[in-house]
Amino acid sequence: MSFEYAPAPESRDIVDLKPSYGLFVDGEFVEAKNSFKTIDPATEETLAEVAEAGADDVDRAVAAARRAYDTVWGPMPGAERAKYLFRIARLIQERSRELAVLESLDNGKPIRESRDVDLPLVAAHFFYYAGWADKLPYAGFGPAPRPLGVAGQVIPWNFPLLMLAWKIAPALACGNTVVLKPAETTPLTALAFAEICAQAELPPGVVNILTGAGETGRALVEHPGIDKVAFTGSTEVGRLIARSVAGTDKRLTLELGGKAANIVFDDAPLDQAVEGIVNGIFFNQGHVCCAGSRLLAQESVAEELLDRLKARMATLRVGDPLDKNTDVGAINSAAQLAKIRELSDSGEAEGATRWSPPCELPERGFWFAPTVFTGVAASHRIAREEIFGPVLSVLTFRTPAEAVEKANNTPYGLSAGIWTDKGSRILWMAERLRAGVVWANTFNKFDPASPFGGYKESGFGREGGRHGLEAYLR
Amino acid sequence: MPDLSTFADAAAAPAELRGLLRGLPPVDQVGAEERAARLATRSIKKSAKAYAIDLAISMVDLTTLEGADTPGKVRALCAKAAHPDPADASVPKVAAVCVYSDLVGEAVRALDGTGIGVASVATAFPSGRAPLDAKLADTRRAIDDGASEIDMVIDRGAFLAGDHQKVFDEIVAVKAECGDVHLKVILETGELVTYDNVRRASWLAMLAGADFIKTSTGKVSPAATLPVTLVMLEAVRDFRAATGRQVGVKPAGGIRTTKDAIKYLVLVNETAGPDWLTPEWFRLGASSLLNDLLMQRRKLTTGVYGGPDYFTMD
To answer: Is there a contact between B239 and B206 (Cβ–Cβ < 8 Å)?
Structure first.
């Protein structure tokens, strides 16, 4: 007999799913002409019917945000704005269990992550920026920094509520009002957040949530009534946005793709490095822009490291996102699954060796087994393109200089990881890596006080920390 | 992974030993503690919990190590070990009873025919501060009186002073005294402090012939912790991969609740692997833990909690 963990599902009952949801405009939920379905990617079951905002809805939302900015939120003293943000943060904490379940249902991520990572960070982000609201003159952006006005914000599906927090918390703290569009596959927690805004008695129009797909997003960022565009998502869409915003007065921040190197030296703490590699690429099914998708292993330790990594991967529990013991959940959508499959197949076709631990995948839903590619050349597509899935490409290096060269040899520059017991080498490497975030002996570690953002095609602007205020002040 | 082919001949060469221990991969404290904390969030329910509780009971080294221990106290403990819950014959018996060496005879008599082992702490437990002759005499007496397992302590002073050879030689000497008797080597990780030291001491003990490595005496705080046990489980896993020899692990001290015990079992399951999930290869050194396991077991089988008055205090 062996130690089999019995199913330990988190109850869905805590979530009160409505059959349909409207748009949140000017403090109330309103209907739209069209709608779309959002599904549970683990079962393909429809969760709810969600309104699709059209151009006129965007007009109304931007007008409401403008009105709120001019009459209430802009003129309000920072200390008063802070009270609302603290209230929102506390409401998020109070409802965190419900929000975590909802996030896992709509996104497919394991409840362990939504419960232990996403939700605590969401609340922390609001608490952090609530604290800044009355201290902006001391943030280093002049003695009397002013808000920009109305921010149009478009966020991705990988961390739906967390990306909302990254966008809305600093914008509101600085005195801006927002119109936010969540991703079409994960709109539900943003709509729950709209309820929380109402619960906190946030003045109408300060936060507006427009659900919809690409067209809604385009109408929002191209709307002449907004002063600022903040986007997190693919480099491809980021380019389109940069083009449409060029020549206008709109301010822009972009947080785009990545192809991070996780660099392991032969003196690294190997067991922890293995955890860091696993956490770097299999956390959130690899749907992480800063994922450590390229493992650069020093050749002298590569074989041992891979043996340990494979043994560890065999213990990953893939399955029901609501089971508290699940480590890797469902891929967010059929389209994303197709992309991961296509790129993985190209890896095999180009000559890399593919390996996955034996693991049973559920029949319904979108699933991809944790995968590692060895024998990867820098020229392979799986070493260059962002896969945004649980797929790791392993390359080797001989010297620190070669590691830097290989790590930087990508159009992206969002994050990197260094594993070594030698402090001086960490500093030497960090100075030379062209990446916005460099982790030393850890990976995928986030904190609201720490700025996050990229170099090169990973975007520009910083979110989090004091630096994150700059994008919302003039 | 250290190359052990050269080591077999060089066991007596301090430089080789030091080189080997220093060549082990370092442990990152933050990462090790994070890993242990994450595994502690595993949710073990229903059938998995029932399995884990019975497994944990069968792994208990039921321990009394007080200056005030008497033959009567030891007899009572032995009775408890054989029949942890007199009201329920389906409860497994514990693995062993752990006593001071002068009380081994009493325990052996009390446990005659039960199949439960008698473990004796020895080698000037808990400090280990005595001449080697005294340590060996202590060990010999316990074995002569019938102990089936010896829990020795390492010389932490020598280890911290860098005299790995002295620690090694003492373990070899005690092991020679033990013969077929199982030798558990207590590292007293609360005094070694760093995880790097824990990993090195684990390898040192295994190389010197330990059958088990054990965290603590229970007399020093902190005693057993999850991250320390994690590092030791990694050590036995790697040691088996390098040498083919399997060594057991025993966290001891501070494990009081069923929840704690289950966290340790999860750690074993997901670090060293299922091969270690038997009393032969994993033990829990504890005293009050047993009653909590029994209470949780009855809750699971009957659906109601019995108060502490319904379980014997021994």
So the answer is: yes
